[in-house]
Amino acid sequence: MAGRNHLQLREIPLSRVAPLSRSTTGPRHLHTRPHRHLLEDRISTQHREIQSLLLDNHRHAATRCIKTRSLSVTARPLRHLSTLAAGVKAERDNQIREVYQRSLKLDAELRSIDAMRSELVQVRTDVQKITLQRQDMTAQLKDMNSEIVKAKRETQQVGVIKEEIETVQQEIQGGRSAIEYEKKTWAFNLEQEKVLDKNRILLVREIEKLRTELANAEKRARAAAASGNPSPGYGRNYGSAEVRYGGSSYPDPNGLHHVRIGGVILLLHFHLEQCLMATMTLHIDEFLSP
Asked: Would you give the end-to-end CA distance of the chain in angstroms?
């Protein structure tokens, strides 16, 4: 313990100090000798101071060790007293806890007894209420038995009323079905009218196109005839000769063209009517099919 935290006394030998150079030859080293003496004096003074500091440190360490020992000796009874006080305090705490727990148990028992008393009072009041309700229910039961007898008498007429209700329901269902059928037929007729109107419009447009084509064809035929008969007198005599001899044996190409266009128009009308009839029959079949 005495050797801790302090430095041992050691003297610094002067041999460790860097020796001064003894070469004094030359004019440069003549003026450095007093400086070396000064350095040696300073080093010796510092060495003395260090030795004194080491002695002081050693003394302080010894006094510190003595004080720590005395403190450890005086701390032992204090520790013993603190342990005894802690034990006494723990015993007292245990006693206090036991007393507190007993008091809590007693409070809980008292509260349970009070609750049981209140429940007993509530049970008595409930029993009285139940007895009153029982009397009321017996009276109501008598009234209900009398009403049941009346209802049994009235239930004998329920069969007739049920039959009347069923007939009325059947009539209502028939009326609803008729109304639904009328709605469907009206909607179907409306759709068919719309389709027919569209087809009529298309047919009128096609007829107008064919008429314009026929008019253009007639114009072209007339122009071709006019270009083929340059002399009107010759044409008249030639035509009168054909009439005289019963007509020409060659057919007129313009007349054939008109006949063909008319046939095409009739065929178109026929096909359009067939398409309309087919669509109408198809819609009717779809409507009538379940």
From this structure: 120
pLDDT in tens, the chain (290 residues): 444 444 444 444 444 444 444 444 444 444 455 678 888 888 888 888 998 899 889 888 888 888 888 887 777 777 788 888 888 888 888 889 888 998 898 888 888 888 888 888 988 999 999 999 989 998 999 888 888 888 877 777 777 788 888 888 898 988 888 888 888 888 888 888 888 888 878 888 888 888 888 888 888 888 888 876 554 444 444 443 333 333 444 444 444 444 455 566 666 666 666 666 666 666 565 555 54
- Residue whose structure tokens are 């009308």: 269
**Strands, E assignment, the chain:** none
Q: Is the dihedral of CA 143, 144, 145, 148 positive or negative?
A: positive
The values of phi and psi at residue 197, to 5°, are: -60, -40
The SS3 of residue 142 is: helix
Contact, 287 vs 188, CB < 8 A?
yes
Distance CA 212, CA 190 (A): 33
Rounded-to-integer distance, Cα 262 and Cα 207, Å: 11
Cα distances (angstroms) measured from residue 173 to each of 159, 168, 169, 177, 184 = 21, 9, 6, 6, 16
CB half-sphere exposure, 118, CA atoms < 13 A: 6
Element of type H or E holding 19: none
CA distance 231 to 275: 50
Claim: this prediction has a pTM higher than 0.70: no
Task: Judge contact between 7 and 57, C-beta under 8 A.
Answer: yes
